[in-house]
Amino acid sequence: MSASSLFKSMVVASLFAVALAAEFARAAEQYDVVVYGGTAGGVIAAVAAAEQDVSVVLLEPGRHVGGMVSGGLGATDFGRKSVIGGMSREFFTRVGRHYNEPIAWYFEPHVAEQVFKDWLKEAQVTVLFGERVDSVTRSEPIGVVNGQPAGPRIRTIRMKSGKVFAAKVFIDCSYEGDLMARAGISYTVGREGMDQYGESLAGRRERCEYHQFKAKVSPYDENGNLLPCVYGGDPGEVGQADKKVQAYNFRICLSNRKENQVPFPKPANYDPKRYELLKRYLAAEPELQLKNIMNIKMMPNGKTDVNNNGAFSTDHIGGSWEYPEADYERRQEIWDDHVSYVQGFFYFLANDPSVPRHIQDELNQWGLAKDEFVDTGHWPHQLYIREARRMIGEYVMRQADLQTDRTKPDSIGMGSYNSDSHHVQRIPTPDGGVINEGDMQVPVKPYEIPYRILVPKREQCSNLLVPVCFSASHVAYSSLRMEPQYMIMGQAAGLAAVYAVRNEEPVADVDVPWLQDMLRETGAVLNLSQAIPDDPAAAKKTWPGIVVDNHAAETVGDWALSSVVSPYVGIDYLHDGNTGKGEKSVRFTPDLPADGEYEVRLAYTPGPNRSSETTILVHSADGPKTIKLDQKQPPADPPFVSLGRFRFQAGRSGYVELRNEGSNGHVVADAVQFLPVK
Question: Domains in the chain, start-ordered, CATH in brackets?
Answer without folding.
Answer: 24-189+393-398+448-529 (3.50.50.60), 536-676 (2.60.120.260)
